[in-house]
Amino acid sequence: QWNFPQGDRVSDGGVEEEILRPMLRILAIAGLISLSSPPLGAKEVADDASRSHERSEANLGLNIFGLSFHTNRDKEYNELNPGIGLRYTLWRPVPDWSVLGDSSIYYDSSRAWAKYLGVGAYYSLTSSWKVGVTIVYAQSESYNRGKPFFAAVPGLAFDYRPVVLNVVLLPSEDAASKVTGLAVFLTIPIK
Q1: What distance lies between CA 75 and its chain's CA centroid?
Q2: For residue 65, which of 100, 29, 103, 35 has the smallest C-alpha distance?
Q3: Which helix (H) or strand (E) holds 137?
Q4: Are 62 and 169 in contact (CB under 8 A)?
Q5: 24-38, 62-76, 104-118 — which is least confidently predicted?
Q6: For 42, which DSSP code?
Q7: Distance, CA of 64 to chain centre
Q8: Local structure of 180: helix, strand or coil
Q9: Which element (helix H / strand E) includes 65?
Q10: What is the bridge-based pairing of β-strands 60-70 and 149-160?
Q11: C-alpha span between 157 and 185 (Å, rounded)
Q12: Distance between CA 188 and CA 62 in Å, rounded?
């Protein structure tokens, strides 16, 4: 469990300051990391372009889960979420796009084992940053009363040498809930 400083509640729309501070820290860290990436639309040096292409050539990767950060701090979610899975790059239709498949199992935030299969598409914003969405078929006792379900899971990936840091939006528990939080996991190339 993460111990974030307790702050005063902000009255605009029920957003809590204690939620905003950690998220702003994450965004600040991501911003600092992005300084190592060329800006959007910048022409890369041929040598750097060939290195980034080599980085993305691995078709099979090992997903290692993780952490999660939740907006509702009152529910006492489990934010240490160990798990393992595989990611396979199925297709690269054009240079900046990748279609991938994911299969993973992890201990979720409500302390149940979650399993999912997914197919996603990611677009390369720069040689290091990718954004995309994965359509997952998942099952966990924590969601949908334990019945399998489909969900669209948006994500952001930072490719740093061979390791990829993935940050995804967690699916909402029901139609009334808004963003429940973020999950963080690594993908390490195998082949």
Answers
A1: 21
A2: 103
A3: strand 129-139
A4: no
A5: 24-38
A6: P
A7: 12
A8: coil
A9: strand 60-70
A10: unpaired
A11: 10
A12: 5
Model pLDDT for residues 66-101, shown as the tens digit of each residue: 999 888 777 788 889 999 999 999 999 988 999 999
Q: Which residues lie closer than 8 Å to 109 by C-beta, 6 or more apart?
A: 68, 70, 77, 78, 79, 81, 142, 170, 181
Instruction: Please list the residues that pair with 120 across neighbouring strands.
Output: 100, 134
Q: Report d(CA 175, CA 163) in Å as an integer.
A: 34
Tokens in use for 10?
């902000």
Residue 175's Cβ-count burial label (10 Å; 0-12, 13-18, 19+) is: exposed
Q: State the Cα angle at 171 between 190 and 9, rounded to 5°.
A: 120
Query: Is residue 66 reached through a cis peptide bond, with omega within 30 degrees of 0 on the bond before it?
Result: yes
The residue written with tokens 């939006």 in the block is 169
Tokens at 9, concatenated: 């509640």
Q: Which residues pair with 132 in a beta bridge?
A: 122, 155
